[in-house]
Design goal:
The chain has 3 domains: about 170 residues, Rossmann fold (3-Layer(aba) Sandwich); about 180 residues, Rossmann fold (3-Layer(aba) Sandwich), CATH 3.40.50; about 110 residues, GMP Synthetase, Chain A, domain 3. It contains 15 helices and 27 strands. The strands form 6 sheets. The protein has a 9-stranded mixed β-sheet with strand order 2-1-10-9-11-12-13-14-15, sandwiched between helices. Strands 16, 17, 18, 20, 21 and 22 form a 6-stranded antiparallel β-sheet that branches. It has a 4-stranded parallel β-sheet with strand order 4-3-5-6, sandwiched between helices. The protein has about 525 residues and is α/β, with parallel strands linked by helices.
Protein backbone atom coordinates (compact mmCIF):
# COMPACT_ATOMS: atom_id res chain seq x y z
CA UNK A 1 0.00 0.00 0.00
CA UNK A 2 1.45 3.37 -1.02
CA UNK A 3 1.17 5.59 2.05
CA UNK A 4 3.34 7.77 4.28
CA UNK A 5 5.02 5.77 7.04
CA UNK A 6 3.41 7.96 9.71
CA UNK A 7 -0.01 7.03 8.33
CA UNK A 8 0.94 3.32 8.16
CA UNK A 9 2.06 3.26 11.81
CA UNK A 10 -1.13 5.06 12.84
CA UNK A 11 -3.24 2.45 11.05
CA UNK A 12 -1.44 -0.41 12.83
CA UNK A 13 -1.88 1.40 16.16
CA UNK A 14 -5.61 1.69 15.65
CA UNK A 15 -6.08 -1.86 14.38
CA UNK A 16 -3.76 -3.70 16.76
CA UNK A 17 -2.60 -1.31 19.51
CA UNK A 18 -1.36 -3.95 21.97
CA UNK A 19 0.81 -5.84 19.50
CA UNK A 20 4.55 -5.54 20.20
CA UNK A 21 6.10 -3.23 17.62
CA UNK A 22 9.58 -2.44 18.80
CA UNK A 23 11.93 -3.67 21.52
CA UNK A 24 15.52 -4.07 22.65
CA UNK A 25 17.20 -5.20 25.88
CA UNK A 26 15.91 -2.03 27.62
CA UNK A 27 12.35 -1.29 26.47
CA UNK A 28 9.38 -2.72 24.61
CA UNK A 29 6.72 -0.66 22.82
CA UNK A 30 3.47 -1.91 21.37
CA UNK A 31 2.02 -0.17 18.31
CA UNK A 32 -0.24 2.02 20.42
CA UNK A 33 2.68 3.19 22.56
CA UNK A 34 4.88 3.67 19.50
CA UNK A 35 2.31 5.94 17.88
CA UNK A 36 1.76 7.93 21.09
CA UNK A 37 5.45 8.27 21.87
CA UNK A 38 6.35 9.44 18.37
CA UNK A 39 3.69 12.14 18.73
CA UNK A 40 5.09 13.10 22.13
CA UNK A 41 8.59 13.30 20.63
CA UNK A 42 7.35 15.49 17.76
CA UNK A 43 5.77 17.84 20.31
CA UNK A 44 9.06 17.97 22.25
CA UNK A 45 10.90 18.94 19.09
CA UNK A 46 8.33 21.69 18.53
CA UNK A 47 8.89 22.93 22.08
CA UNK A 48 12.60 23.21 21.26
CA UNK A 49 11.81 25.43 18.29
CA UNK A 50 11.73 22.90 15.45
CA UNK A 51 9.37 23.37 12.55
CA UNK A 52 8.67 21.52 9.30
CA UNK A 53 11.73 21.48 7.03
CA UNK A 54 14.26 21.81 9.87
CA UNK A 55 17.05 19.27 10.27
CA UNK A 56 17.23 17.06 13.37
CA UNK A 57 20.65 15.44 13.77
CA UNK A 58 20.89 12.06 15.51
CA UNK A 59 24.42 11.21 16.66
CA UNK A 60 23.83 8.07 18.70
CA UNK A 61 24.34 4.36 19.15
CA UNK A 62 21.64 1.86 18.15
CA UNK A 63 18.61 1.77 20.45
CA UNK A 64 14.90 0.99 20.00
CA UNK A 65 13.59 4.24 21.46
CA UNK A 66 15.60 6.16 18.86
CA UNK A 67 13.86 4.29 16.04
CA UNK A 68 10.63 5.62 17.53
CA UNK A 69 12.20 9.10 17.65
CA UNK A 70 12.78 8.98 13.88
CA UNK A 71 9.03 8.55 13.40
CA UNK A 72 8.45 11.54 15.66
CA UNK A 73 10.83 13.60 13.53
CA UNK A 74 8.80 12.65 10.46
CA UNK A 75 5.53 13.52 12.23
CA UNK A 76 6.67 17.13 12.62
CA UNK A 77 7.80 17.27 8.99
CA UNK A 78 11.47 17.60 9.96
CA UNK A 79 14.46 16.07 8.19
CA UNK A 80 16.15 13.16 9.96
CA UNK A 81 19.97 13.43 9.74
CA UNK A 82 21.70 10.35 11.23
CA UNK A 83 25.44 10.66 11.87
CA UNK A 84 28.14 8.25 13.00
CA UNK A 85 28.93 8.90 16.69
CA UNK A 86 32.49 7.70 16.04
CA UNK A 87 33.27 10.08 13.19
CA UNK A 88 36.45 12.23 13.29
CA UNK A 89 36.09 15.73 14.73
CA UNK A 90 36.92 17.44 11.43
CA UNK A 91 34.14 15.55 9.65
CA UNK A 92 31.65 16.35 12.42
CA UNK A 93 32.61 20.02 12.24
CA UNK A 94 32.02 20.14 8.48
CA UNK A 95 28.69 18.27 8.56
CA UNK A 96 27.16 20.25 11.42
CA UNK A 97 28.02 23.47 9.60
CA UNK A 98 26.55 22.06 6.38
CA UNK A 99 23.31 20.87 8.00
CA UNK A 100 22.75 23.76 10.43
CA UNK A 101 20.58 21.54 12.67
CA UNK A 102 17.64 22.80 14.69
CA UNK A 103 18.24 20.08 17.33
CA UNK A 104 20.98 17.50 17.94
CA UNK A 105 20.19 14.20 19.68
CA UNK A 106 23.30 12.61 21.16
CA UNK A 107 24.86 10.52 23.90
CA UNK A 108 25.90 11.95 27.26
CA UNK A 109 29.59 11.24 26.62
CA UNK A 110 29.41 13.16 23.32
CA UNK A 111 27.70 16.26 24.73
CA UNK A 112 30.84 18.40 25.00
CA UNK A 113 32.25 17.26 21.67
CA UNK A 114 29.04 18.08 19.83
CA UNK A 115 28.72 21.44 21.58
CA UNK A 116 32.24 22.39 20.48
CA UNK A 117 31.49 21.70 16.82
CA UNK A 118 28.06 23.29 16.49
CA UNK A 119 27.88 26.30 14.15
CA UNK A 120 27.89 29.77 15.79
CA UNK A 121 24.11 30.05 16.10
CA UNK A 122 24.13 26.71 17.97
CA UNK A 123 21.28 24.27 18.51
CA UNK A 124 19.62 22.66 21.54
CA UNK A 125 21.06 19.29 22.59
CA UNK A 126 18.68 16.48 23.43
CA UNK A 127 20.41 13.60 25.20
CA UNK A 128 19.36 9.99 24.73
CA UNK A 129 18.47 9.96 28.43
CA UNK A 130 16.07 12.85 27.74
CA UNK A 131 14.42 10.81 24.98
CA UNK A 132 14.09 7.85 27.36
CA UNK A 133 12.48 10.14 29.94
CA UNK A 134 9.89 11.21 27.37
CA UNK A 135 8.93 7.56 27.01
CA UNK A 136 8.41 7.26 30.76
CA UNK A 137 6.29 10.41 30.72
CA UNK A 138 3.97 9.06 27.99
CA UNK A 139 0.87 11.27 28.47
CA UNK A 140 -1.44 8.44 27.32
CA UNK A 141 -0.86 6.75 30.66
CA UNK A 142 -2.84 9.55 32.30
CA UNK A 143 -5.31 9.64 29.38
CA UNK A 144 -4.33 13.28 28.74
CA UNK A 145 -5.10 14.40 25.16
CA UNK A 146 -2.04 15.38 23.14
CA UNK A 147 -1.94 18.75 21.36
CA UNK A 148 -2.62 18.26 17.65
CA UNK A 149 0.12 18.03 15.05
CA UNK A 150 -0.23 19.00 11.41
CA UNK A 151 -1.09 16.15 9.05
CA UNK A 152 2.11 15.62 7.10
CA UNK A 153 1.06 12.37 5.42
CA UNK A 154 0.10 14.15 2.19
CA UNK A 155 3.45 15.96 1.98
CA UNK A 156 5.49 13.55 -0.13
CA UNK A 157 7.64 15.90 -2.22
CA UNK A 158 9.65 17.06 0.80
CA UNK A 159 12.90 15.68 2.26
CA UNK A 160 12.50 12.89 4.83
CA UNK A 161 16.14 12.22 5.67
CA UNK A 162 19.68 13.21 4.75
CA UNK A 163 22.44 10.58 4.90
CA UNK A 164 26.05 11.58 4.39
CA UNK A 165 28.26 9.62 2.03
CA UNK A 166 31.63 8.35 3.23
CA UNK A 167 33.57 11.13 1.55
CA UNK A 168 36.23 8.67 0.41
CA UNK A 169 36.46 10.43 -2.97
CA UNK A 170 36.14 13.97 -1.62
CA UNK A 171 34.24 15.83 1.07
CA UNK A 172 31.14 14.15 2.53
CA UNK A 173 27.90 14.81 0.63
CA UNK A 174 24.47 14.88 2.24
CA UNK A 175 22.00 12.79 0.20
CA UNK A 176 18.44 14.13 0.46
CA UNK A 177 15.70 11.52 0.09
CA UNK A 178 12.05 12.56 -0.18
CA UNK A 179 9.05 10.91 1.46
CA UNK A 180 7.75 9.99 -2.00
CA UNK A 181 10.87 7.89 -2.53
CA UNK A 182 10.26 6.08 0.77
CA UNK A 183 6.61 5.46 -0.07
CA UNK A 184 7.49 3.92 -3.44
CA UNK A 185 10.43 2.00 -1.95
CA UNK A 186 8.14 0.46 0.68
CA UNK A 187 5.55 -0.28 -2.02
CA UNK A 188 8.06 -2.31 -4.02
CA UNK A 189 10.02 -3.93 -1.22
CA UNK A 190 7.47 -6.70 -0.32
CA UNK A 191 8.08 -8.20 -3.78
CA UNK A 192 11.68 -8.78 -2.65
CA UNK A 193 11.76 -8.83 1.16
CA UNK A 194 8.71 -10.80 2.29
CA UNK A 195 8.12 -9.13 5.67
CA UNK A 196 4.47 -9.25 6.80
CA UNK A 197 2.50 -8.53 9.98
CA UNK A 198 3.35 -11.93 11.46
CA UNK A 199 7.10 -11.51 10.85
CA UNK A 200 9.70 -11.09 13.58
CA UNK A 201 12.60 -8.95 12.40
CA UNK A 202 15.98 -8.15 13.90
CA UNK A 203 18.09 -5.08 13.26
CA UNK A 204 21.88 -5.13 13.42
CA UNK A 205 22.60 -2.03 11.33
CA UNK A 206 24.07 1.25 12.63
CA UNK A 207 21.61 4.10 13.12
CA UNK A 208 23.50 6.34 10.67
CA UNK A 209 23.63 3.87 7.77
CA UNK A 210 20.84 4.27 5.15
CA UNK A 211 19.92 0.60 5.65
CA UNK A 212 17.90 1.79 8.68
CA UNK A 213 15.13 2.34 6.15
CA UNK A 214 14.78 -1.35 5.21
CA UNK A 215 16.22 -2.74 8.43
CA UNK A 216 14.16 -0.75 10.95
CA UNK A 217 11.37 1.31 9.40
CA UNK A 218 10.09 -1.07 6.73
CA UNK A 219 9.18 -3.84 9.25
CA UNK A 220 7.23 -1.28 11.30
CA UNK A 221 5.43 0.01 8.21
CA UNK A 222 4.40 -3.62 7.57
CA UNK A 223 3.09 -4.09 11.11
CA UNK A 224 5.79 -6.65 12.01
CA UNK A 225 7.67 -6.99 15.29
CA UNK A 226 11.18 -5.52 15.35
CA UNK A 227 13.95 -6.35 17.81
CA UNK A 228 16.88 -3.90 17.85
CA UNK A 229 20.11 -5.65 18.80
CA UNK A 230 22.38 -3.83 21.25
CA UNK A 231 25.31 -1.96 19.72
CA UNK A 232 27.69 -4.93 20.12
CA UNK A 233 29.27 -6.68 17.13
CA UNK A 234 29.85 -10.04 18.84
CA UNK A 235 28.99 -13.16 16.79
CA UNK A 236 27.65 -15.22 19.70
CA UNK A 237 25.41 -12.38 20.94
CA UNK A 238 24.07 -11.60 17.47
CA UNK A 239 23.32 -15.26 16.78
CA UNK A 240 21.57 -15.54 20.15
CA UNK A 241 19.40 -12.53 19.29
CA UNK A 242 18.20 -14.36 16.18
CA UNK A 243 17.61 -17.64 18.03
CA UNK A 244 16.05 -16.35 21.24
CA UNK A 245 13.59 -14.02 19.49
CA UNK A 246 12.45 -16.54 16.89
CA UNK A 247 13.56 -14.13 14.16
CA UNK A 248 12.07 -14.76 10.72
CA UNK A 249 13.78 -11.89 8.85
CA UNK A 250 16.94 -9.87 9.33
CA UNK A 251 19.49 -8.00 7.25
CA UNK A 252 23.26 -8.29 7.52
CA UNK A 253 25.27 -5.85 5.43
CA UNK A 254 28.88 -5.88 4.39
CA UNK A 255 30.75 -8.64 6.22
CA UNK A 256 28.07 -8.94 8.92
CA UNK A 257 26.66 -12.17 7.50
CA UNK A 258 30.12 -13.75 7.70
CA UNK A 259 30.65 -12.38 11.21
CA UNK A 260 27.41 -13.90 12.57
CA UNK A 261 28.28 -17.24 10.98
CA UNK A 262 31.39 -17.36 13.21
CA UNK A 263 29.18 -17.85 16.28
CA UNK A 264 30.10 -20.90 18.36
CA UNK A 265 26.63 -22.44 18.00
CA UNK A 266 26.08 -21.65 14.33
CA UNK A 267 26.66 -25.20 13.04
CA UNK A 268 24.94 -26.98 15.93
CA UNK A 269 21.86 -24.85 16.67
CA UNK A 270 18.99 -24.72 14.14
CA UNK A 271 17.00 -21.57 13.46
CA UNK A 272 13.61 -23.10 12.59
CA UNK A 273 11.78 -19.77 12.28
CA UNK A 274 14.24 -18.12 9.87
CA UNK A 275 12.76 -17.42 6.42
CA UNK A 276 14.75 -14.62 4.78
CA UNK A 277 18.16 -13.01 5.21
CA UNK A 278 18.89 -9.77 3.39
CA UNK A 279 22.46 -8.89 2.48
CA UNK A 280 24.32 -6.52 0.19
CA UNK A 281 26.55 -3.42 0.29
CA UNK A 282 29.61 -5.51 -0.64
CA UNK A 283 29.80 -8.46 -3.02
CA UNK A 284 28.47 -11.34 -0.86
CA UNK A 285 30.81 -14.16 0.04
CA UNK A 286 29.55 -17.24 -1.82
CA UNK A 287 30.66 -19.70 0.84
CA UNK A 288 29.03 -17.69 3.61
CA UNK A 289 25.72 -17.56 1.71
CA UNK A 290 25.90 -21.30 1.14
CA UNK A 291 26.57 -21.95 4.84
CA UNK A 292 23.39 -20.06 5.77
CA UNK A 293 21.32 -21.92 3.18
CA UNK A 294 22.71 -25.32 4.16
CA UNK A 295 22.22 -24.76 7.89
CA UNK A 296 18.69 -23.34 7.49
CA UNK A 297 16.81 -25.45 4.95
CA UNK A 298 14.02 -23.49 3.27
CA UNK A 299 15.60 -20.13 4.07
CA UNK A 300 16.47 -17.68 1.29
CA UNK A 301 19.21 -15.05 1.10
CA UNK A 302 18.44 -11.86 -0.83
CA UNK A 303 21.39 -10.09 -2.46
CA UNK A 304 20.24 -6.46 -2.62
CA UNK A 305 22.01 -3.59 -4.31
CA UNK A 306 21.54 0.15 -4.21
CA UNK A 307 23.54 3.31 -3.52
CA UNK A 308 22.43 5.80 -0.88
CA UNK A 309 21.38 8.08 -3.73
CA UNK A 310 18.72 5.54 -4.77
CA UNK A 311 16.86 5.13 -1.45
CA UNK A 312 18.75 2.23 0.08
CA UNK A 313 18.08 -0.53 -2.49
CA UNK A 314 17.18 -0.59 -6.18
CA UNK A 315 17.72 -4.19 -7.35
CA UNK A 316 17.67 -7.60 -5.68
CA UNK A 317 18.39 -11.25 -6.42
CA UNK A 318 16.88 -14.13 -4.37
CA UNK A 319 19.24 -17.02 -3.58
CA UNK A 320 17.64 -20.33 -2.58
CA UNK A 321 19.67 -23.03 -4.28
CA UNK A 322 22.22 -25.00 -2.27
CA UNK A 323 25.37 -25.17 -4.40
CA UNK A 324 28.35 -26.25 -2.27
CA UNK A 325 30.79 -25.95 -5.18
CA UNK A 326 29.53 -22.69 -6.65
CA UNK A 327 32.22 -20.19 -7.64
CA UNK A 328 30.30 -17.76 -9.88
CA UNK A 329 29.44 -14.47 -8.20
CA UNK A 330 25.78 -13.88 -7.42
CA UNK A 331 23.96 -11.32 -9.58
CA UNK A 332 22.47 -8.17 -8.06
CA UNK A 333 19.21 -9.07 -9.76
CA UNK A 334 16.42 -7.02 -11.24
CA UNK A 335 14.91 -3.64 -10.47
CA UNK A 336 12.39 -2.88 -7.73
CA UNK A 337 8.84 -1.96 -8.74
CA UNK A 338 9.42 1.80 -9.07
CA UNK A 339 12.98 1.61 -10.43
CA UNK A 340 14.34 1.64 -13.98
CA UNK A 341 17.86 0.39 -14.69
CA UNK A 342 20.01 1.18 -17.72
CA UNK A 343 23.52 0.32 -18.82
CA UNK A 344 25.44 2.85 -20.91
CA UNK A 345 28.82 2.83 -22.64
CA UNK A 346 31.53 5.48 -22.38
CA UNK A 347 29.63 7.73 -24.80
CA UNK A 348 26.41 7.47 -22.84
CA UNK A 349 24.76 5.19 -25.39
CA UNK A 350 22.37 2.58 -24.05
CA UNK A 351 23.51 -1.06 -23.87
CA UNK A 352 20.84 -3.76 -24.15
CA UNK A 353 22.95 -6.75 -25.18
CA UNK A 354 23.89 -9.41 -22.63
CA UNK A 355 27.48 -9.80 -21.41
CA UNK A 356 28.42 -6.26 -22.47
CA UNK A 357 29.79 -4.17 -19.57
CA UNK A 358 28.55 -0.65 -19.02
CA UNK A 359 27.90 1.93 -16.30
CA UNK A 360 24.68 1.35 -14.37
CA UNK A 361 22.17 4.19 -14.27
CA UNK A 362 19.28 4.01 -11.80
CA UNK A 363 16.10 5.86 -12.68
CA UNK A 364 12.65 6.31 -11.18
CA UNK A 365 11.21 7.68 -7.96
CA UNK A 366 13.90 6.10 -5.75
CA UNK A 367 16.43 8.65 -7.05
CA UNK A 368 17.50 11.30 -4.55
CA UNK A 369 16.22 14.86 -4.51
CA UNK A 370 19.88 15.90 -4.60
CA UNK A 371 22.98 16.59 -2.52
CA UNK A 372 22.44 19.12 0.25
CA UNK A 373 23.85 22.56 -0.67
CA UNK A 374 25.66 21.12 -3.72
CA UNK A 375 23.61 21.95 -6.85
CA UNK A 376 26.54 21.58 -9.27
CA UNK A 377 27.57 18.20 -7.84
CA UNK A 378 23.92 17.10 -8.03
CA UNK A 379 23.71 18.18 -11.68
CA UNK A 380 26.82 16.14 -12.50
CA UNK A 381 25.38 13.02 -10.83
CA UNK A 382 21.96 13.21 -12.54
CA UNK A 383 21.17 12.55 -16.18
CA UNK A 384 18.13 11.70 -18.29
CA UNK A 385 17.67 8.61 -20.45
CA UNK A 386 14.47 7.78 -22.33
CA UNK A 387 12.87 10.66 -20.46
CA UNK A 388 13.69 9.09 -17.08
CA UNK A 389 15.62 11.01 -14.42
CA UNK A 390 18.61 8.82 -13.49
CA UNK A 391 21.49 8.67 -11.04
CA UNK A 392 24.93 7.78 -12.41
CA UNK A 393 26.13 5.06 -10.04
CA UNK A 394 29.72 4.75 -11.29
CA UNK A 395 29.27 0.96 -11.03
CA UNK A 396 30.13 -1.29 -13.97
CA UNK A 397 27.62 -4.07 -14.56
CA UNK A 398 26.49 -6.38 -17.33
CA UNK A 399 23.21 -8.03 -18.21
CA UNK A 400 23.11 -11.80 -17.97
CA UNK A 401 21.08 -13.68 -20.60
CA UNK A 402 18.17 -14.03 -18.12
CA UNK A 403 17.98 -10.25 -17.62
CA UNK A 404 19.61 -10.15 -14.18
CA UNK A 405 22.35 -7.62 -13.58
CA UNK A 406 25.83 -8.79 -12.59
CA UNK A 407 28.05 -6.35 -10.71
CA UNK A 408 31.60 -6.20 -12.06
CA UNK A 409 33.22 -3.36 -10.14
CA UNK A 410 33.49 0.37 -9.60
CA UNK A 411 34.12 2.55 -12.62
CA UNK A 412 36.63 4.49 -10.52
CA UNK A 413 37.97 1.30 -8.92
CA UNK A 414 39.03 -0.33 -12.15
CA UNK A 415 42.81 -0.30 -11.96
CA UNK A 416 45.44 -0.30 -14.65
CA UNK A 417 48.34 -2.68 -14.00
CA UNK A 418 51.13 -2.94 -16.55
CA UNK A 419 48.90 -1.36 -19.19
CA UNK A 420 46.03 -3.81 -18.55
CA UNK A 421 42.65 -2.90 -17.10
CA UNK A 422 41.84 -5.09 -14.09
CA UNK A 423 38.55 -5.50 -12.24
CA UNK A 424 39.47 -6.43 -8.70
CA UNK A 425 36.28 -8.45 -8.12
CA UNK A 426 37.53 -11.15 -10.51
CA UNK A 427 40.62 -11.68 -8.33
CA UNK A 428 38.37 -11.80 -5.25
CA UNK A 429 36.23 -14.47 -6.88
CA UNK A 430 39.23 -16.79 -7.36
CA UNK A 431 40.56 -16.33 -3.83
CA UNK A 432 37.14 -16.74 -2.20
CA UNK A 433 36.83 -20.07 -4.05
CA UNK A 434 39.77 -21.53 -2.11
CA UNK A 435 38.69 -23.67 0.90
CA UNK A 436 38.82 -22.04 4.34
CA UNK A 437 39.00 -18.49 2.97
CA UNK A 438 36.49 -16.44 4.93
CA UNK A 439 36.94 -13.21 2.94
CA UNK A 440 39.51 -11.25 0.97
CA UNK A 441 40.22 -7.71 -0.16
CA UNK A 442 42.31 -6.66 -3.17
CA UNK A 443 44.21 -3.39 -2.98
CA UNK A 444 46.82 -1.54 -5.00
CA UNK A 445 50.15 -0.54 -3.49
CA UNK A 446 52.84 1.72 -4.82
CA UNK A 447 56.43 0.53 -4.48
CA UNK A 448 59.30 2.85 -3.62
CA UNK A 449 60.07 2.94 -7.33
CA UNK A 450 56.60 4.30 -8.13
CA UNK A 451 55.32 1.02 -9.55
CA UNK A 452 51.66 0.15 -8.94
CA UNK A 453 51.20 -3.47 -7.80
CA UNK A 454 48.33 -5.62 -6.56
CA UNK A 455 48.11 -6.96 -3.02
CA UNK A 456 45.62 -9.38 -1.46
CA UNK A 457 44.61 -9.43 2.20
CA UNK A 458 43.13 -12.78 3.25
CA UNK A 459 40.93 -13.61 6.23
CA UNK A 460 41.06 -17.36 6.95
CA UNK A 461 38.60 -19.45 8.95
CA UNK A 462 39.59 -19.78 12.57
CA UNK A 463 39.86 -22.84 14.76
CA UNK A 464 40.25 -25.43 12.00
CA UNK A 465 43.93 -26.28 12.40
CA UNK A 466 44.88 -24.26 9.34
CA UNK A 467 48.56 -23.85 8.55
CA UNK A 468 48.58 -20.23 7.44
CA UNK A 469 51.76 -20.31 5.35
CA UNK A 470 50.68 -23.45 3.53
CA UNK A 471 47.26 -22.00 2.86
CA UNK A 472 48.71 -18.76 1.49
CA UNK A 473 50.86 -20.86 -0.85
CA UNK A 474 47.74 -22.72 -1.99
CA UNK A 475 46.01 -19.41 -2.74
CA UNK A 476 49.00 -18.21 -4.75
CA UNK A 477 48.99 -21.41 -6.81
CA UNK A 478 45.25 -21.10 -7.50
CA UNK A 479 45.72 -17.50 -8.66
CA UNK A 480 48.49 -18.50 -11.06
CA UNK A 481 46.38 -21.37 -12.42
CA UNK A 482 43.22 -19.32 -13.05
CA UNK A 483 44.31 -15.77 -13.87
CA UNK A 484 46.60 -14.12 -16.42
CA UNK A 485 49.92 -13.09 -14.90
CA UNK A 486 49.10 -9.36 -14.81
CA UNK A 487 46.10 -10.08 -12.53
CA UNK A 488 48.03 -12.14 -9.97
CA UNK A 489 48.71 -10.08 -6.83
CA UNK A 490 52.38 -9.66 -6.07
CA UNK A 491 51.70 -9.75 -2.32
CA UNK A 492 49.30 -12.22 -0.67
CA UNK A 493 49.05 -11.97 3.10
CA UNK A 494 46.83 -13.45 5.78
CA UNK A 495 45.56 -10.98 8.39
CA UNK A 496 43.83 -11.55 11.73
CA UNK A 497 40.92 -9.19 10.94
CA UNK A 498 39.68 -6.59 8.51
CA UNK A 499 39.26 -3.13 10.02
CA UNK A 500 35.68 -2.05 9.49
CA UNK A 501 33.82 1.18 9.01
CA UNK A 502 30.75 1.57 11.19
CA UNK A 503 28.58 0.79 8.14
CA UNK A 504 29.98 -2.76 8.10
CA UNK A 505 32.14 -2.17 5.04
CA UNK A 506 35.87 -2.85 5.16
CA UNK A 507 37.96 0.21 5.96
CA UNK A 508 40.23 -0.09 2.94
CA UNK A 509 42.47 2.81 3.95
CA UNK A 510 43.19 1.24 7.33
CA UNK A 511 43.67 -2.18 5.70
CA UNK A 512 46.13 -0.68 3.23
CA UNK A 513 48.15 0.76 6.11
CA UNK A 514 48.13 -2.67 7.80
CA UNK A 515 49.45 -4.33 4.66
CA UNK A 516 52.17 -1.73 4.17
CA UNK A 517 53.34 -2.17 7.78
CA UNK A 518 53.33 -5.95 7.42
CA UNK A 519 55.29 -5.76 4.17
CA UNK A 520 57.85 -3.43 5.75
CA UNK A 521 58.31 -5.84 8.66
CA UNK A 522 58.81 -8.75 6.30
CA UNK A 523 61.32 -6.78 4.24
CA UNK A 524 63.31 -5.91 7.35
CA UNK A 525 63.29 -9.55 8.47
CA UNK A 526 64.66 -10.63 5.09
CA UNK A 527 67.40 -8.00 5.17
CA UNK A 528 68.41 -8.74 8.76
CA UNK A 529 71.42 -11.15 8.75
Amino acid sequence: MREHIVKAIGAHARRNPSKCALSDSRVSLDYGALDRFSTRFALRLRELGCKAGDSVVMLTNRQAVLVAAILGTFKLGCIHVPLDPRMPASRLDYILADVAPAVVITEEDLRDTVAQHLPPRGAPLLLVSDVEQLLIEDPARSEAPAPPLPDVSAELDVPAYCVYTSGSTGRPKGVLIEHRSIVDFFDGTPDVYDVAENSVCASFSPMHFDVFLMDMLFPLAQGARLYVHDDLIVPDLMFETIRANGVTHFSAWGMMLTVIAQATDFDSTPLPHLKTVLTGTDVPNIKTVQRWLKRNIGCQVINAYGPTEATCAATAYPIRKIEPNRQKLYPIGKAFKHVRTFLVDGDGKRIDAANTPGELLIGGTHVMKGYLNLPEVTAAAITYLDGVRCYRTGDICTYLPDGNLLYIGRKDNEVKIGGYRVHLSEIQRVINGVPNVQACEILTLETKYGEKVLAAAILLDKGRGIQVDQHVDLIKRRLVEELPSYMVPRHVMAVDEFPQLSSGKTDRKALLSMLERQMNRQSQEVMTP
